[in-house]
Amino acid sequence: MVWTLVVPLKPLAVAKSRLRAGAGGLPGPALALAFALDTVAAALACGSVRDVAVVTDDRPAGRELAALGARILPEPPGGGGLNAALAHGARTVRAGRPRSAVATLNADLPALRPGELGRVLEYAAEFPRAFLADAAGIGTTLLAATAGKELGPAFEGRSRARHRASGAREIDVRDVDSVRRDVDTETDFRAALKLGVGPRTAALADGLLRPDRAAD
Ligand SMILES: Nc1nc2c(ncn2[C@@H]2O[C@H](COP(=O)(O)OP(=O)(O)OP(=O)(O)O)[C@@H](O)[C@H]2O)c(=O)[nH]1
Ligand SMILES: C=C(OP(=O)(O)O)C(=O)O
Fold first, then answer.
1. Which of 28, 46, 85, 191 could bridge 114 with an S-S bond, Cβ 3.0-4.6 Å?
2. 140 has binding-site annotation
3. Ligand with minimal distance to 105 CA
4. CB atoms within 10 A of CB 63
5. Domain span including residue 56
6. Which of 5, 6, 9, 10 maximizes ligand 1 atoms within 8 Å of its Cβ, making it the mutation to test the pocket?
7. Which atom of ligand 2 is nearest to the CA of 159?
8. CB-ligand 1 contact for 8 (6 Å cutoff)
9. Is residue 212 part of a domain?
């Protein structure tokens, strides 16, 4: 089965506020863009991914993501936040190709490896709806719906429990840390660097983190 991924991206100026506000005062917008570019590049390199649609109103980010090969979709009219953006993205994809298998993927997975994403999507293909818990075990990094199933996104906060309660199958695959490793805090960032991040994040991370200082 091949998938269309829907990737949400906030305007960079307000993205990654927890990284920006943390003790290290990291450059949120620049990191958010590098994370998104590395996430989308890795997703496009996955054999199970047909294409990637990014939902964003950030024009400069949209141009760079389009140059990688992503389709750029605007936020829904009236906004509505992350879940509205994801539902709108999935609807727009299926307006063009109604039988698409659709999965959302957060834009903050800079360590993402195409092979690990492929194994997660292979598992998801066996269920109407499925999701992958994040590294913290509280949130969600991927939510998938096969043909004919509504996505039903319920992200933000304790979304793992919400997605489970919604009837989606929890994806239980070992050794897919790169798909679970979202980066919200400096501690997360260090964990992603340990896994190995994509080239745009690596170039930016160089010299950004002092190894001697306690994280967060
Ligand atoms: N298109 C779109 N994407 C969003 C929206 N809110 C969050 N996202 C994206 O959803 C994913 C998870 O978002 P969050 O962790 O809530 O936000 P963040 O900017 O990554 O980090 P914080 O500012 O620290 O919360 C990221 O890929 C965000 O860019 C939204 O309203 N619209
Ligand atoms: C939106 C989510 O991610 P984050 O942990 O980045 O807020 C989520 O896990 O539902």
1. 46
2. yes
3. 1
4. 10
5. 3-205
6. 10
7. 10
8. yes
9. no
Specify the number of domains making up the chain: 1
**Which of 82, 179, 182, 186 maximizes ligand 1 atoms within 8 Å of its Cβ, making it the mutation to test the pocket?**
82
28-44 and 59-68 helices cross at what angle (nearest 10)? 30
159 annotated among ligand-binding-site residues: yes
> Is 144 within a domain?
yes
Ligand nearest to the CA of 33: 1
Domain assignment of residue 214, yes or no:
no
3-state SS, residue 155: coil
Per-residue pLDDT tens listing for the chain (216 residues): 999 999 999 999 999 999 999 988 899 999 999 999 999 999 999 999 999 999 999 999 999 999 999 999 999 999 899 999 999 999 999 999 999 999 999 999 999 999 999 999 999 999 999 999 999 999 999 999 999 999 999 999 999 999 999 999 999 999 999 999 999 999 999 999 999 999 999 999 987 876 544 444
Two tokens at 68? Answer: 């990688």
- Looking at the domain assignment, is residue 64 inside a domain? yes
Q: What's the pTM value of the predicted model, to 2 decimals?
A: 0.96
CATH of the domain at 48: 3.90.550.10
CA gap 16, 116 in Å, rounded? 24
- Count the helix, strand and coil residues of the chain and give each as a percent rounded to the nearest 5: 40, 15, 45
ipTM greater than 0.90: yes
